[in-house]
């Protein structure tokens, strides 16, 4: 009896410690989030492999990705717009005064925000047929009806994720990054359960219910940590509350900016729906592969730094604000530049290992590989966009990212239409891209134009954001950033040379017609790339390498000493 009681007590202490767990430094928090995003990425790769193997790049996946677009749009502009631009800074300002006042604001916000989300989602469910016609004009008959059904089911997801992501933002203010890091893993797990168990029972609708399950799991892991933090729910619904009014004022430009950015996805989907069947799936699968590691780095670092940068700005400590900005930007460059080169060099191996199964045929593989190569060119730009936007929000400036996002969306739509037209009517341009991307025999090249426009637009947006930030904060010291960039570039080029040599040597001795042959070529080339990059960075005395390695050692190897 005593023994059983002892273990129950130990278990209770461990659970309490888990939900009370705090991470104080930006580097440690970034590391925890990056590891969790990488684990989530593994589940994401499993999800995409199951999707590609089960459905192939055809009509069914086109329907799923199209139906997902509008619920995702609602989630981004309302949920992430509010959290990034408003909730964390305003909650932090209340917390500086009183914890009770901060939680009163949170209760009111949850009630108002979720009430509004429910109304919006119900209205959009009613108008789902019109929305499908708008974003996928190429969908007709049964294809359109199925997209409408899936979209209506998935409109439950923004409501659940609305509460969950708001709670995530609050937990980040309390430095409880470990708990918030688990939620993306569980979200992907829900979708995987949907593919494995719901799809065989309910068809493609089961996939939509998997998305809803993912949202439920995303929320359920965070609720205990919120109550452990001292939150007590209050039934208050005051639209005239000063905190609520300030939240709406701050989130509107951010939401408009995100909405404009998400119009890129909607425009791409609309154009792709008029192309060859499977074009939507090919673009989305390639985009998922290219963005997985960028999200693991840029999102984790930006998320971890956002609360402390917001506080630095609130305290009017400009020097600390810019010092943090410089350090984080250098870390992002250090981590994303080599990944961009690696994706470009090993794109074929990545696509074949991750997606090359079941109904995903050789034509799908070639097109997805080509799209991935083009999208790899914009990885560092995508990382810059994520971080620079959040930095502007930390400085309570949501207008600049919104205006730039709106301008670049218009540019992307125009460029996409032009490139798709050019690929359809210019034989010389078509022939040029087919040779560069090794797409001999592929007739419909339209989706390549979409990927190319997407990359060019991302580079333009990142450049504009960086220019405006330097203009807004002229005291930023760029000398350290430039020196770090040159060291990173040298290490990346050395890595690229050794990776290409390794890939070619392994290609001559391994059987590349089998999964394990391709997997070994990818894995061994990746190991050589990692060793080379770290070795050259160490030789060049990279400060970023030291910062990251010190954080890793402190968090995971010497945890008991701190």
Automatic annotation (TrEMBL):
Main location: membrane
Keyword annotations from UniProtKB, A to Z: Cell membrane, Cell shape, Cell wall biogenesis/degradation, Membrane, Peptidoglycan synthesis, Transmembrane, Transmembrane helix, Transport
A UniProt-annotated Pfam family: MurJ
GO MF: lipid-linked peptidoglycan transporter activity
Membrane topology, as annotated: Multi-pass membrane protein
Record GO biological process: cell wall organization; lipid translocation; peptidoglycan biosynthetic process; regulation of cell shape
InterPro entries recorded: Lipid_II_flippase_MurJ/MviN, MurJ
Family label: Belongs to the MurJ/MviN family.
NCBIfam families xrefs: murJ_mviN
Name the record gives this protein: Probable lipid II flippase MurJ
Species: Candidatus Staskawiczbacteria bacterium RIFOXYC1_FULL_38_18
Gene name, Swiss-Prot/TrEMBL: murJ
